[in-house]
Design goal:
By secondary structure, the protein is mainly alpha-helical. The protein has helices at about 5-70, 75-120, 130-135, 145-215.
């Protein structure tokens, strides 16, 4: 190739490298804008759902207190309380499952954003002049070798993504199991405390009945039961 032909080829390469970023940049900007809009919409949806769950929990606590108060006015107190608590526990578990699903979706979205940022840094394109100079100086690459290198890099990226996904899944499963265990322990302690209070109340009532039957002055009644703590 003559010197004139070489200079012409270099000029064409520089021109092409200058035009391509101009064409690609708007498309990339549009893609990033769409991703940001979708992320904002998902965040707004999660906030709305969390507010709804909080309101339903408050209503559940108030309703349970009211129904338990009614149970203490009935003859079969224990059966009534068990029914009220079972119904409240079912609603509480449903709300907790919805909350965990929102948390998992938020973690997945943040992980995807971090991965996107890493990929953007890795695919950053050098200035057009440097690319043109490198292409002019660098001899033509072997197509087979270039394809093999691309395949190797793609395989490595896939392995890294799979490793990250597996680590996130393991972390989420561990956290979910720990949350479920803590919730079960909390419910068990709460039920034990309520049962102990009921047993004490039953003993006092029996003592009062025995005293009345024997003509003795009965002991003062126990104070009204305090409102149970909200379920967590």
């Amino acid at each position: 190739m003559s010197k004139t032909g070489g200079r012409l080829w270099a000029a064409l390469v520089v021109l092409a490298c200058s035009v391509v970023p101009v064409l690609v940049a708007p498309a990339r900007a549009a893609t990033e804008a769409g991703a940001d809009s979708a992320s904002a919409s998902a965040a707004a949806h999660r906030k709305t759902e969390r507010d709804r769950i909080a309101r339903e929990r408050e209503a559940l606590t108030a309703r349970r207190h009211q129904e338990e108060a009614v149970c203490y006015q009935r003859f079969a107190v224990e059966d009534c309380l068990r029914g009220v608590r079972a119904k409240a526990r079912e609603t509480h578990d449903r709300l907790r499952a919805q909350e965990m699903e929102l948390n998992d979706a938020e973690r997945r979205e943040k992980a995807a954003e971090r991965l996107r940022a890493i990929e953007d840094k890795q695919t950053a394109v050098p200035p057009a002049a440097k690319r043109a100079e490198a292409q002019v100086r660098k001899p033509a690459a072997d197509p087979d070798a270039a394809k093999a290198q691309r395949d190797t890099e793609a395989h490595q990226r896939a392995q890294q993504q799979n490793s990250r996904a597996q680590a996130q899944a393991t972390e989420q499963a561990t956290r979910a199991a720990a949350n479920a265990d803590r919730a079960a322990q909390s419910r068990a302690k709460h039920e034990q405390a309520l049962q102990a209070a009921d047993e004490r109340r039953a003993r006092v009532e029996k003592s009062r009945a025995d005293a009345l039957a024997q003509g003795r002055k009965p002991a003062a009644p126990l104070p009204a039961p305090a409102a149970s703590a909200p379920m967590r």
